Amino acid sequence: MEKDLILTCDTGTTGCKCTLFTTKGDALSSVRRSYGTQYPHPNWAEQDPEIIRKAMFDGIRELLQQVSATRIAVVGLSGTMDGCIPVDENGIVLYPNIIHSDGRSEAQVDEILKIISFDDFYKMTGNRPDTHYTLPKILWLKENKPEIYRKARWYLNMKDYLYGSLTGRWGYTDYSDASLTSALDINRRAWATELLKELNLDPNTMPNLLKGHDVKGKITRDVYRQTGLITGTPVAIGGGDGACATRGAGVSEPGSAYCYIGSSAWVAQLNDRPILDPKARIFNWVDMNGVDYHVCGTVQCGAAAFDWCSKNLLGGSGQTADISIVENMARQVRPGAEGVMFLPTLMGWRTPYWDPNTRGCLLGFSLYHDQRHIARAVYEGIAFALNAVAEVMAECDAPVRSLMLTGGGARSGLWPDMIASIFGLTTQVHRMPGESTSLGAAIAAGVGVGLFSDYTDAASMVTARSTHPVNPQWQASYKEIYAIYADIYERIRPLNNRIAALNLE
Q1: Is residue 129 a part of any domain in this protein?
Q2: How many whole angstroms separate alpha carbon 76 and alpha carbon 10?
Q3: Which of 3, 144, 247, 450 sits at a 20 to 30 Å CA gap from 273?
Q4: 202: domain range?
Q5: What's the pTM?
Q6: What are the residue ranges in the chain where pLDDT is below 70?
């Protein structure tokens, strides 16, 4: 039987999605397993990698009830970035994954800045020293969980852990996930060993670097028994979700960008060099191909903020409001929500302010306003936050010239039109908006086994299902409203700092 399918496993913040793709990029079938995040303290966020591994195995088993495992040519992987999973030499997890949204390591960021200046760190890593990245999390473990640190052989991201679970090959990562540890010299595309040594960290605990399309790993006999995948099936290590989503969105040249609206949200584009912002508001990582670079800015809470509002502000009796109902409410109010504004900063603010103390803010409401205005303000607040990312890129001589929308939020009937008018740019919606990350993992895996000649060749199969031009009336309204929105942060920052200083535990 012909091996004509690619199986991907994408582990996001809220669930693992396993998908079967054809060599034309069509999603033949997909299953999803949900899991939770633990928040044991303010600004902490952890997940259990073993629960996620089991979710992946469950998803694979269900998919293989629909097609023969003999058709699987290769397995591709994607997962959340910026994490920290300490494992021993056998891949046993020693501590939960300290995920991307965790902000516990402020003291460790300060320690890093005693060793290297902010500017030098940014120039070397393409990233600012920040709590969300892996490096300060490793330092946190060293100082607060010394017994874990002593036992740790490797520090992995989520898809690296799954790669080891499938292949038995522990201690490997790809260039994209390595970049967002903030321990990689992106100019040399190698670990920043001198910095690690100066921080009294062992460089040998950083995993070996592979290109995302590397397929040396193979499905083990034990995994065959647990999932049905044929022993010896190639496994591409793939990339972080941001890297995979870029490729799956069809981005292949400078100025060509995409916007992902998921639990977190971001705007990213591909370039042949890092784009270093003098104010360090955007960040960079090396592409899965080990050659190109991604420049990105992130909104920490995208759909996560939307979901929180749907449950706590827009639902009834503690129930989450149906998305279609929320969107219908938002459509009943004109652009600007009649003065109601929302900052989706429920887990701090990354681009452009990089402030973990920022809290969510709903502003401008009166006895006249109702849930319809809040609904509209929530949509607009997230879109405004994404626009701030594009503005920074333009300031850095990397303007967004085309924009593909992906992620679950791109299925909205409102966000694409709203983003087009706020950005002042015609937008497109991916033909499979919820599959772009998985498709990127499939592209890398397909390149690895020769199903696609290269990443650019594979990207040519990505098409849009709809196009959304700028609405001039909306654009004029949003220009006026955005000017006020952009001023809110500086006005409330002193209050947020005072709140953060309170002992709330």
Answers
A1: yes
A2: 8
A3: 450
A4: 5-237
A5: 0.89
A6: 1, 317-318, 503-505
